[in-house]
Write a sequence for this structure.
């Protein structure tokens, strides 16, 4: 059987027809048009499903289910998405609305959760018994897979690892709390620290690469400058990695997964990031004589969203 | 069938014969005699098993297995306890050693994990699908139960929630890291803060209750003084509860259990603690429109150790 995977983002919506091994038979993208009434967006998602079925050269009868990854959560009991910030959605009856257009079972889960599922079936954590996927982007998302199944807790509100407090009384977070993991280990955190450092370090490679314009700074500029040995960038990356290591060790101390997978935009820094994180984690491990999670980079890139969403129909 | 449960503590070792419902048929305690060669302690544990079998009026043939809760962990692959601080144990081959004396299957797990299992079978979280037990004692231990089974992760090093960092760069912990949860939310933390406050607040009820001797301060004195409205004690308890709430909300954001159970010495503060914690957790919750874990006090008291250890044979 085949599965449709839909990856709903703030700017674009991707769709694909996926095999049970996570292979993509066809895919297509449309603009989200965030801000429109949810009925319009969901109608577009239904049409995207039909479009990719056609593009794959298969029939709707070959499709087992539709899986949807959203930057939020879906209440499994009601099919309602309580809120989804990027789309401005609040209490959207997603499943009943999409059923007005297309008659297939629909599974909805968090976008990081489905990306973690994708990696655990067809990516770097394939074959592992348990994994935690960490998306290092604008914020931090988490995708927990236990015994091959996505784990979102009993009420569906788990795996929000970005809002684990690692610094009581620290930086104010968008969630209203202080000191959340994503305030220190997201791309946003790197950019914030680089902007703070810029006025005092006009000699930094960061200043050169952003043409003296703080608005141009992104995580890549900071990492590239650190790779080139720039002192300011190295200091920012070092602080960043220390916080990331604290968050990772917290997850190891609580959940002890087999693999921790780093994905999202920041993970594009590659082995430079990976090696630094592995080194920073080592001295923080509690049971120093025991094995602990290997830390790896995600492999599926931006296709993880549609692959994992599709696989919800098989693995949930 | 019946099960033997052994609860190994730093000063005493308790044993009991337990039914599959968690009822105690017989129990007995012996001193640990920590510091002796591990062979002697384990020989005493084997004899304690025979003693409680006799006391229960049953035969060894009625016993399915022996479960042991230790203040440490046991490598499930080797049966070796890598370390167990209170007993001064390091790489003790527990299972092979006890098998020199008694021929029954042996399961070993962390003491907080088995207490959590006990509560989830015969205590406050009975019937729940997932729970996290938090022991608030000298340190903080965690017992995670998912789908009725104790969860210690893939390498057996999980559920060490006391060493989740909630305050980057904060108080130095016995584990070598800084800012661990147990530095802020254990009985030790309350006592430390009360001792710090004492010189500046000789008028406090804490000073009266400890007869001016900081060495006499325990968590109970601080909570009793707070219940009586003492300003110094209220301030200490308030800080304590805030940190405890942060740790609890971190666990909710990551694992989203059905119930969080508070046990250990500090939980003796009862409803005064429970109500404060529930109030402090509420504003920190991420998905404010969604249901989240109920927070409850443990019910089984000091018997949880032998009950949960015994039940390892049935639920692992």
């Amino acid at each position: 059987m085949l599965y449709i995977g839909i990856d709903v983002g703030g700017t674009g919506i991707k769709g694909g027809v996926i095999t049970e091994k996570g292979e993509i038979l066809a895919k297509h993208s449309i603009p989200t048009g965030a801000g429109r009434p949810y009925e319009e967006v969901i109608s577009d998602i239904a049409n995207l499903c039909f479009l990719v079925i056609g593009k794959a050269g298969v029939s709707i009868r070959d499709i087992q289910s539709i899986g949807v990854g959203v930057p939020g959560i879906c209440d499994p009991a009601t099919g309602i998405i309580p809120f989804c910030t990027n789309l401005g959605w609040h209490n959207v009856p997603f499943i009943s609305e999409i059923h007005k257009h297309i008659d297939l079972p629909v599974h909805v889960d968090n976008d990081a959760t489905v990306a973690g599922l994708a990696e655990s079936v067809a990516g770097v954590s394939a074959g592992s018994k348990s994994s935690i996927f960490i998306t290092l982007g604008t914020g931090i998302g988490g995708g927990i897979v236990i015994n091959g199944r996505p784990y979102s807790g009993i009420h569906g509100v788990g795996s929000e690892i970005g809002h684990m407090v690692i610094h009581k009384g620290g930086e104010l977070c968008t969630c209203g709390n202080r000191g959340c993991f994503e305030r220190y280990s997201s791309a946003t955190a790197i950019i914030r620290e680089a902007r703070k450092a810029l006025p005092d370090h006009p000699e930094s490679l960061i200043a050169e690469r952003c043409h003296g314009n703080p608005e141009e700074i992104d995580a890549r500029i900071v990492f590239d400058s650190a790779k080139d040995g720039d002192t300011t960038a190295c200091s920012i990356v070092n602080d960043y990695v220390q916080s990331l290591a604290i968050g990772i060790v917290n997850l190891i101390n609580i959940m002890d997964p087999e693999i921790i997978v780093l994905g999202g935009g920041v993970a594009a820094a590659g082995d430079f990031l990976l090696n630094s994180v592995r080194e920073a984690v080592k001295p923080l491990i509690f049971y120093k004589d025991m094995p602990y999670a290997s830390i790896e980079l995600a492999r599926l890139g931006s296709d993880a969203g549609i692959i994992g969403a599709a696989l919800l129909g098989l693995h949930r």
Observations:
- Residues 53 and 60 of chain A are 7 Å apart (CA to CA).
